[in-house]
Specification:
This protein has four helices and six strands, in the order E-E-E-H-E-E-E-H-H-H. By secondary structure, the chain is α+β, with helices and mostly antiparallel strands. A hairpin with a 2-residue loop joins strand 4 and strand 5.
Length: about 200
């Protein structure tokens, strides 16, 4: 039997421009080995997903976009920069160690999308995140909202993820440790989201 190249997988490209977006999932990927400029580093990664309620695909579902971040509070970290742009206010030292990243689910923002090409393929990438103007309401997500944390492992949520995401998470040492126990480490604290001003989306 001949070995044939698969048919090209056509997909609908998220439109470029600035769009209203609402966060519908936050996925803890655990610590991953990252290769950059010939060096290998261990970094704790998360993935955040947004849907664009005003931009619909051919089947009527909203487009969605995702971005992976290093879980870091450094002033140089992309996660902190994007969250501060989204909030419209910088974090304070008191916020760290208390702020639950899951608080962003269901919150709205403006997202800038740009198209870039590589190896004859075109991709939609997030270029900017901004706070919605005062008074603008946030649409309710149409997609199922998902919050997955390795600090409070939920097998039902884990099983609902795509095979690629599960395979990525399974590579992490956090996941490996959890698989040796019947329940999450009880020493993990359950910090709550600090009280913030109503003018701040999270």
């Amino acid at each position: 039997m001949p070995l044939l190249l698969p048919e090209k997988n056509d997909f609908e490209l998220t439109p470029a421009g600035t769009h209203v977006a609402v966060c519908y999932r936050v996925i803890d990927l655990g610590t991953q080995l990252i290769e950059f400029k010939g060096e290998t580093k261990k970094q704790h990664k998360i993935m955040i997903g947004w849907e664009l309620p005003d931009e619909l695909m051919a089947d009527g579902r909203p487009f969605s976009v995702h971005k992976r971040y290093t879980l870091s509070s450094s002033t140089k970290a992309a996660l902190r920069k994007d969250l501060e742009a989204w909030r419209g206010v910088p974090f304070t030292d008191e916020d760290f160690g208390k702020f639950d990243i899951g608080a962003i689910i269901g919150k709205g923002c403006f997202i800038g999308i740009v198209h870039s090409s590589s190896n004859d393929n075109t991709f939609a990438n997030i270029s900017s995140i901004m706070k919605l103007p005062k008074g603008q309401s946030t649409p309710t997500p149409q997609n199922q909202t998902v919050y997955f944390s390795l600090n409070a492992f939920d097998k039902t949520v884990f099983d609902s993820l795509s095979e690629n995401l599960k395979a990525t998470i399974a590579k992490s040492p956090e996941y490996a440790r959890l698989m040796g126990h019947d329940r999450p480490d009880p020493s993990v604290s359950d910090d709550t989201v600090p009280e913030l001003s109503d003018e701040i989306p999270f």
